[in-house]
Please model this.
Amino acid sequence: MEDVLIVGAGPVGLMLACELSLAGVRPVVLEKRDGPSELPKANGLGGQIVDVLDHRGLLERFSAGSPFSGRAAGFPFAGVPLSFEGIDDLPLRLLLIQQPRLERLLAERARELGVEIRRGREVTSLAQDEEGVTLGVGDTHLRARYAVGCDGARSRVREWAGIAFPGTTDEEGLIVGHFKADIKVFESLESDGLQPGWNRTPQGRVLLTSLQDGVLIAGVREPAALPDGPVTLDGFRAAVRRVLGRDVPLGEPIWLSSTVAQARLAERYRAGRVFVAGDAAHLFPAGGSALNVGMTDAVNLAWKLAGVLRGRVPETLLDTYDAERRPIGARTLMQTRAQAAIDRVEGEDGLALRELLGEVFAFPGPARHLGLLLQDSGLGYGPAEDPLVGRFVPDLELDGGGRVAELMRAARPVLLDLGGGAEVAGDWIDVVRARCDDPPADALLIRPDGYVAWAGTDGLAEAAEEWFGAGLTTSRA
Model:
């Protein structure tokens, strides 16, 4: 019997596999595609997942050759620009990386960690009992203690597990393409009165932007129904012409596709021994939050599964996956629904709405609030009034030149003693004694996913037992 079967080798499934392997579990990843996808469905990562890559020592590797990696100076919210200038405590970071490269790098990392990825294996059935989960794969069956559906919006795992997926589907479709173009094309677009971003007319909207040299990203939204079958270059050009009333020098197509936005949230993230993560658990209609939330779903779930499988924590800890991550999904769905609604308002009403929001967003308070929404939904896992417990650990600069992020490479719990004399004995928790300027607490107990489980002076034993298992002994010098 396998420990964990992961269905889907996209970014979420591969991230989960890497995290489980770091924690000493050897998952098996099942993917119906024969090879990695070459479709650039996403163009980058933003928010907390960038910090997690930093924690795992992967950020430099993943950002090599990226057009941009670093702290976000701003971000569009429903097409209205946000500026974070002067907001020094906002941690939002961006990494421009197209999804095919992201998947290749995650697959490389998974193989380095000994993960088995079985491609060309379509799962055709699922059944579970008190002891485990059985997946039908062709004419064979695989058995595991747990299964995780990372198999996207049309997740069969979610369906077989009996998890409802309520929500709505947009009435308006989007066709999108990447085109080879040189700098003269962008100069020509500007001279024709077209601006980067969405260009609106009474007939619809046309997106024109670029995230890397030589590549134009274009999209068209219009009331007309999406074309039957694959999107063609002639069809794309015709849609641009219908909306703008003229042709645009798009260049040679690299990739063309169509999609319809959906807003959905799984009624639960766990059904017995089956879990869902990523697009199988939530679909957002706007805002570029899908990979951030989906991949951090995986990071949250992995260490808990590993703790249970290795007998360190009770099986009930797995219930905290739904309790912690579903509110994150719900809040992200809320803000992306709001973005989609703002973006849909057309004509003079839409212009007035976005102009007023632009004035509001120019104030530091609203800009910071929205930045936190984009970072990690603005929610923590602990009491709202607690600035540390249940929040992602601040990346403190430690004496000697180290950082907190560098303590998290192995995806293990860390007790960081900053001068309070905290101690914990156990074979799973790394104890680090360090000093820093202006420490936020005497000591921090940090979960493998980077969240603070405990801070301060009292209650360390209880927190260590709650999150990391009985049998630990704790004391204070």
Notes: The radius of gyration is 23 Å. The chain is about 30% helix and 30% strand. The chain has a mean pLDDT of 92. The domain at 2-166+264-375 is CATH 3.50.50.60 (FAD/NAD(P)-binding domain).
